[in-house]
């Protein structure tokens, strides 16, 4: 049973906890994280969601996950990436890019520059069916073809990454 801390509209913990799957009250939020992993070739690591997933089966996207009770988004981001794809992310190398409030979820979006040999990946098969490195152009094409998950803020986040992180990594 996974427990989530409840946050208010200011992103502050309320002290309440809920079980994953329970209905969240209007005005309450739970915390989630997304990580953009960028290599030295300015490629972005994306993962394909398992066909067995209830939400967005077979769709490409970033590594994401819900943050469990008493965990912050940074540590949750590290945990989720390791659980889902077997990568070890170093806390000091992760940069918080943005906080997004959407529906009943607060998304903390992180970026990290890190190499990863896909042949060494250990995929959590219930969650992830494939991994690949893509260029910004390829990702935009996948978004326009509905192969990758196009959420409202993705182009703003992609622009931030292009203008801030990809330039300094080239």
From TrEMBL:
One of its GO terms (cellular component) is cytoplasm. Gene3D superfamilies: Nucleoside Triphosphate Pyrophosphohydrolase. Pfam families: NUDIX (PF00293). SUPFAM superfamilies: Nudix (SSF55811). One of its GO terms (biological process) is isopentenyl diphosphate biosynthetic process. InterPro entries: NUDIX_hydrolase-like_dom_sf, NUDIX_hydrolase_CS, NUDIX_hydrolase_dom. One of its GO terms (molecular function) is isopentenyl-diphosphate delta-isomerase activity. Residues 28-156 form the Nudix hydrolase domain. Keywords: Hydrolase, Isomerase. The keyword Hydrolase applies. PANTHER family: ISOPENTENYL-DIPHOSPHATE DELTA-ISOMERASE, NUDIX HYDROLASE DOMAIN-CONTAINING PROTEIN. This is Isopentenyldiphosphate isomerase.
